[in-house]
Amino acid sequence: MRLLLINPNTSAAMTASIAAAAREIAAAGTEIIARQPSFGPASIEGHFDDAFGAAGVAEQARLAAGDGVDATVIACFGDPGLDAAREVLAGPVLGIAEAAFHAAAMLATGFSVVTTMSRTCVIAERLVQRYGFERACRGIHGTDIPVLDLEAAGDALVATLEAAARRALAADRSEAIVLGCAGMAGLARTLQARLGVPVVDGVAAAVKFAEALAALGLQTPKVGDYAPPRPKPWAGWASGLVA
């Protein structure tokens, strides 16, 4: 199968590292096609960034329509542009937060999220509410690690994440950790070995769920909310995407 991986920020290094993590977990017959927007922020660390990230996802989803991709993963924990991508792509489209929440809830009665900037915790909280995981998610914890610092995750950064996860497990009385950033994808196994509880990386979870849904022949319905966008005039730089 062909799986489109969209990194909503414009960091080429992060796109490459996320793609590498996805290829490591993907089935032998899965081709990972990694793309990023042609515009927007280098990292997504707030509502303003998130709005442009969503537009970038919409751009890349539109460009990929008709390319024969079987499923799509949006590799940002805010799941920006998820509904827009579902409108224009036929196959399953999964956000990594949605996938991670489902995976963690299948493993433990309660989980905690450990993410990057504390200011983004409210974005994760709103997704918990949207997806209906208020009872299973017992806490969301920011570390104030800048997203781009994850591109060169050294021992000190991993130790910071481990300490935050230990505090979260104790304070929330949870039994699993969800990593709240796609840039943490390569750290899940190390942290799981140190913590002794499931550590869920949303990129890996979304890739495996996407493979399963595609293998089942399930696609995004093209009626109701996810019907294709209605034709209408567009202005400015985006007009080429809908012509």
From TrEMBL:
It comes from Rubrivivax gelatinosus. Belongs to the HyuE racemase family. InterPro entries: Asp/Glu/hydantoin_racemase, Hydantoin_racemase-like, Iso_Racemase_Enz_sf. This is Asp/Glu/hydantoin racemase. Coiled coil: none annotated.
